[in-house]
């Protein structure tokens, strides 16, 4: 495959940034999107140019590092797929592909396609701790949990914190991410003691970081590589209102 890439290049936070065009030839359809960028970077290094900076780690759709907007869609147009799991066979030979970083005020660009997502860490830290009794491990099944609650908690726990929800939201909202982290614990017995205080603290921190508010457009769940449902936001809002009333 022969491709034309339009890539956002930005040397640092103070740089204005620009789109740069690259031609990439002899791309195998079996390559992942990141492997294709690796090939381009090897060429740039040999030519004495600065390679394109992008985040990556596990390359197995687990860590959530590989965040980039591909042709206007976070992680690309394949549903429930991270960028590292996106393969070049999903593109046409001769295609022009535009690659940009997550664009949101709380995600400042570090370099090229790399953004600072530490705001997510601070939201999680605001959630504090989970109270558990000290002592030996409890017997299996000693704390019954409804299957519906266990399934919903597991669905929320699959969030990998990639930030695609923020990049896709027209408001730059982190509500789906925050709701997933809150809902994961609020549905389980271990999360009940701090349930309301946790919800309020995390939502307040999300607002303090500068993320926008949720208007239920649904773009977040449409691009979420783990398919986290929109109703987790309703669960978060319910807990937040209860906490505010108290």
From TrEMBL:
Entry keywords, A to Z: Iron, Iron-sulfur, Metal-binding
Q: Which domain of life does this protein belong to?
A: Bacteria
Q: Keyword check for Iron, yes or no.
A: yes
Annotated 4Fe-4S ferredoxin-type domain residues: 150-179
Tell me the ranges covered by the 2Fe-2S ferredoxin-type domain, including all copies: 18-103
* Cofactors demanded by this protein: [2Fe-2S] cluster; [3Fe-4S] cluster
Which Gene3D superfamilies does the record associate with it?
A: 3.10.20.30, Alpha-helical ferredoxin
**Cross-referenced InterPro entries:** 2Fe-2S_ferredoxin-like_sf, 2Fe-2S_ferredoxin-type, 2Fe2S_fd_BS, 4Fe4S_Fe-S-bd, 4Fe4S_Fe_S_CS, Beta-grasp_dom_sf, Helical_ferredxn, SDH/FRD_Iron-Sulfur
- Known PANTHER family for this protein? SUCCINATE DEHYDROGENASE (PTHR11921:SF41), SUCCINATE DEHYDROGENASE IRON-SULFUR PROTEIN (PTHR11921)
Q: What is this protein called?
A: Succinate dehydrogenase/fumarate reductase iron-sulfur subunit
- Source organism per entry reads Nonomuraea maheshkhaliensis
Phylogenetic placement of the source organism: Bacteria, Bacillati, Actinomycetota, Actinomycetes, Streptosporangiales
């Amino acid at each position: 495959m022969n491709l034309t890439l339009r890539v956002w290049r930005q040397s640092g936070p103070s740089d204005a940034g620009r789109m740069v065009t690259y031609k990439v030839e002899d791309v195998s359809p079996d390559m992942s999107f990141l492997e294709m960028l690796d090939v381009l970077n090897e060429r740039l290094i040999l030519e004495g140019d600065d390679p394109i900076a992008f985040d990556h780690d596990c390359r197995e759709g687990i860590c959530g590092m590989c965040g980039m907007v591909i042709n206007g869609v976070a992680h690309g147009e394949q549903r429930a797929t991270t960028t590292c799991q996106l393969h070049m066979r999903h593109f046409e030979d001769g295609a022009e592909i535009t690659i940009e970083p997550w664009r949101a005020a709380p995600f400042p660009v570090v370099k090229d396609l790399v953004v600072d997502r530490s705001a997510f860490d601070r939201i999680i830290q605001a959630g504090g701790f989970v109270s558990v009794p000290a002592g030996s491990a409890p017997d299996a099944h000693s704390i019954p949990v409804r299957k519906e609650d266990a399934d919903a908690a597991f669905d929320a726990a699959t969030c990998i914190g990639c930030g695609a929800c923020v990049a896709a939201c027209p408001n730059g909202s982190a509500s789906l991410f925050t709701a997933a982290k809150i809902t994961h614990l609020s549905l389980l017995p271990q999360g009940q003691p701090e349930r309301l205080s946790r919800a309020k603290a995390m939502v307040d921190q999300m607002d303090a970081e500068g993320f926008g508010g949720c208007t239920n457009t649904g773009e977040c769940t449409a691009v979420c590589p783990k398919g986290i449902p929109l109703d987790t936001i309703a669960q978060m809002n319910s807990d937040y209102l209860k906490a505010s009333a108290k």
